[in-house]
Amino acid sequence: MTIILHSLCGTDTKRPFSPHCWKAVMALSHKGLDFVERPVPFTEIPALENGFSRTVPILNDNGHLVSDSFAIALYLEDTYPDRPSLFKGEGGKAMARFVEGYTQTVLQAALMPIIVMSIHDILPEKDKAYFRESREARLGRPLEEVVATRAEAEKAAFPGKLEPLRHMLKFQPYLGGDSPLFADYILFGALQWARVTSGSLPLSADDPAMEWFGRCLDLFEGRGRHVTAA
Ligand SMILES: N[C@@H](CCC(=O)N[C@@H](CS)C(=O)NCC(=O)O)C(=O)O
Question: pLDDT of the chain along its 230 residues, tens only?
Fold first, then answer.
């Protein structure tokens, strides 16, 4: 019985950084499943599992392949129903989709200009060229220009973008309530992406959002904290 999670790294295989892969790592840990994480650089993804997916995470559960972090969480929920739930029902799945949308369109979009050069700098040479070309096409300008024109403003605006989380934390310690669910891991993945690649988050240490992030870093024997900040 082997569960393999293909994830993403730069030159250091011990420092996986993809936000989507962190969601899958936390989901597998939440289910209490034994798994092996195998991080690869960007340019090796297309060859994984005979070209199964152009993106990671990819889960190989004893030969059954699943890609996409949310699809992996749904698969784990269906396949291992006797283990702790990642969603606590259909409402939890539906609300996790909202958290996915908020995290990707608001938080990750804001973090990208702040951390894009840090990501570039931790990649092996062959990945640097691929990352620059693909991200410059996506962002519409050279990486250096993205940083020069947007990074400082995004840093200043970032704390405000977590106000929905702070509101929730007045009532409960996790998005899942008294304990975390997949929705927490979605948001966690974005902040962990910034922490691992750039070394810090544009948030103050006494921010309740940082306290929630610290609690998530400590889950599962500190799986998240174990990967040091850049
Ligand atoms: N919707 C997918 C997105 C996965 C994704 O975009 N993964 C990135 C790493 S963070 C990737 O594999 N990118 C490959 C590339 O840019 O070539 C998920 O949630 O898993």
Answer: 699 999 999 999 999 999 999 999 999 999 999 999 999 999 999 999 999 999 999 999 999 999 999 999 999 999 999 999 999 999 999 999 999 999 999 999 999 999 999 999 999 999 999 999 999 999 999 999 999 999 999 999 999 999 999 999 999 999 999 999 999 999 999 999 999 999 999 999 999 999 999 999 999 999 999 999 98
Which of 23, 51, 79 represents a domain boundary (last residue)? Answer: 79
Q: What is the CATH number of the domain that holds 147?
A: 1.20.1050.10
* Nearest CA residue ID for atom 12, ligand 1: 55
Instruction: Give the pair of three-digit tokens for residue 33.
Output: 């499943």
* Distance in Å, CA 39 to ligand 1 centroid: 13
Q: Is 42 in the pocket of ligand 1 (CB under 6 A)?
A: yes
Counting the structural domains of the chain, the total is: 2
Please tell me the residue having the least CA distance from ligand 1 atom 18: 68
DSSP string, 1-13: --EEEEEE-SS-T
In angstroms, the CA 4 to CA 36 distance is 5
Question: Global pTM?
Answer: 0.98
Q: Is the CB of 55 under 6 A from ligand 1?
A: yes
